[in-house]
UniProtKB/TrEMBL annotation:
Entire-sequence positions represented here: 530 to 803 of 803
Residue ranges of every copy of the EAL domain listed in the record: 24-274
Record-given protein name: EAL domain-containing protein
Annotated organism of origin: Sporosarcina oncorhynchi
Amino acid sequence: MTKEEGNHRFRFFTSDLQVKLLEKSFLEMELRQALDNKQFSLHYQPQIDLATGLIKGLEALARWEHPERGFIAPNRFIPIAEENGFILQLGAWVLRQACRQAKAWQDKGFLPLRISVNVSMRQFIQPAFVEDVKKILAETGLDPAYLNLEITESMMSDVQQCQPKLIELQQAGISVSIDDFGTGYSSLLYLSKFPISHLKIDQAFIGELSKENSMIVKAIIDLAKNLNLNVIAEGVETSEQENFLKELKCDEVQGYYYAKPMPWNEVEKFLNRT
Ligand code: C2E
Ligand code: MG
Ligand code: MG
Ligand code: MG
């Protein structure tokens, strides 16, 4: 740039941290408009019964397609949405969209499948959370038996808060899974006390099946079986991983080895061919 231009410009000191903060504040501003501008969609990833190969469920995963930046990963926008509270609106949208889609597939004659929806801490602790979920089910007409909510271990730390909520969900016929199991540093006490349907082994353990990780995976599967919980291994990418999980009689698997998360129309092709 010329000397004159330089004199009229602000000189940003662009440390990595500043770039990140700037980027974050852009995303934060744009997130709010993104919902109105229909930039969010859901992709669905099959959860497969390991023994039979039959598809048991679909996990709904939020996608944000920014008009200039392209797809922005949930690991970038979900934490921001949780921080600024936008997750409440986004979470309600995801839930409604997932239930609506599941019902539409049933109405089209596809075999009814469980639909799993990720719920963030901030959503889950809302006093009206269970009521809101029930309203969405009533509104979309989806049978609660087909809805599964994925929550994380860290949300179980407040037993007083959690237990009544989980019981209320169970009474409404809605099942709950523990996502990213094994990474949450929480007491395991809740596992025997709370109504939970599935443990999802975090993909970090499956992705690198070292001797240590293999032992952890085995221990989680044993624990799940002893507590009468179903267990899903996440992030399965290879036949070696599959074989290992088959030996341990893991119930369900989810990962790129079987299918990536897909938009609804690709899910239909996938269901037609399986
Ligand atoms: P998650 O719930 O544990 O979802 C699994 C993530 O693993 C997804 O990433 C999925 O695309 C990815 N994955 C599946 N199979 C494989 C595999 O074989 N290899 C590898 N490397 N990855 C695999 P995604 O879609 O980027 O989502 C990341 C996280 O963002 C989710 O982790 C979940 O915690 C959060 N998230 C996504 N959608 C929502 C949502 O609607 N609401 C909330 N609260 N969180 C969401
Ligand atoms: Mg999940
Ligand atoms: Mg997970
Ligand atoms: Mg995760």
